[in-house]
Amino acid sequence: MKYGIITIFPEIFHTYLNMGILKRALQKGLIEVKVHNLRDYTTDKHRTVDDYPYGGGAGMVMKPEPFFTAVETLYPDATKRRVIMLSPAGKKFDQGTAMELSTENRRLLFLCGRYEAIDERVKTMVDNEISLGDYILTGGELPALVIIDAVSRLIHGVLGGNHSAETESFSWGILDYPHYTRPSVFRGLSVPEILLSGNHKEILRWRRKKALRLTLERRPELLGKCKLSDEDYKLISEIKEEL
Q1: What is the structure's pLDDT at 170?
Q2: Please, are residues 26 and 33 in contact by the beta-carbon 8 Å criterion?
Q3: Max CA-CA distance within the chain?
Q4: Domain membership flag for residue 130
Q5: Are strands 2-7 and 107-111 parallel, antiparallel or unpaired?
Q6: For position 225, which CATH number holds?
Q7: Which domain, by its residues, includes 119?
Q8: Which residue among 152, 173, 194 closes a domain?
Q9: CATH number, position 8
């Protein structure tokens, strides 16, 4: 998977991308991330990337010229890039979007805005606008990192186990089950006996039931969006009787 990022704060990305899973994915060549400074594609001595808005109003607007110049200079073949603008007006990002992006053969190119907004004309070369949610951040850098992290985890070989990403929250449509590790008893709190039993069939059933219960209690709307088995419906009935 290949990513490109256009930003006025490239330093933001260096620390995060050089730690943990993403660092190993980069070292293995499983992902490629190129970070570009938007100011390198300005034409004035002050490397100006913003200006006052037409019509007045608060804040500054990012100019269109640097974005067009950067995209067309760095990635001139439009068929090999998928330009994504991080915007509160975009489609809300979720696991389904992450999975769809993980199958993309083109480079994912993120345009990170700052200030009040990006000039509307930049959208003429944008393929998708994506939002993390119904709140405002100071720039598009954090959303870009979130998307890169979420998408990269779905690339084969990035995570240690073959099924790690498949069994995480949202990947199977519902929330995750509780996890435990050693010691078996900590401050009087014990690991559920079923997890120590060695009965893998019952452990799987316990985990699925716990995941369904957590989803029912905290995110019930998810149950209407995922494919449930006959066994799931039986477990949900048991859960409702227990509540």
Answers
A1: 57
A2: yes
A3: 71
A4: yes
A5: parallel
A6: 1.10.1270.20
A7: 2-152
A8: 152
A9: 3.40.1280.10
CA distance 44 to 25: 38
pLDDT score at 134: 93
Q: Would residue 87 be called left, alpha or beta, if left means φ above 0 and alpha means ψ between -120 and 50 degrees? A: beta
What does DSSP assign to residue 173?
A: S
Which has the closest alpha carbon to 33: 154, 142, 152?
152
Q: Round to whole Å and give the CA distance between 104 and 82.
A: 9
Question: Cis omega before residue 183 (within 30°)?
Answer: yes
What is the full per-residue pLDDT of the chain (243 aa) written as tens digits? 999 999 999 999 999 999 999 999 999 999 999 999 999 999 999 999 999 999 998 899 999 999 999 999 999 999 999 999 999 999 999 999 999 999 999 999 999 999 989 999 999 999 999 999 999 999 999 999 999 999 999 999 999 765 555 555 555 689 999 999 999 999 999 999 999 999 999 999 999 999 999 999 999 999 998 899 999 999 999 999 998
Q: What is the crossing angle of helices 141-152 and 95-102, to 10°?
A: 70
Regarding beta strands 61-62 and 50-51, do their DSSP bridges make them parallel or antiparallel, or are they unpaired? antiparallel
Contacts of residue 59, defined as CB under 8 A and 6 or more positions apart, other chains included, come to 53, 115, 116, 117
β pairing state of 32-37 and 2-7: parallel
Tokens encoding 161: 């186990």
How far apart are the C-alpha atoms of 64 and 123, rounded to whole Å? Answer: 9
* SS3 category, 151: helix
**What is the predicted pLDDT for the residue at 40?**
98
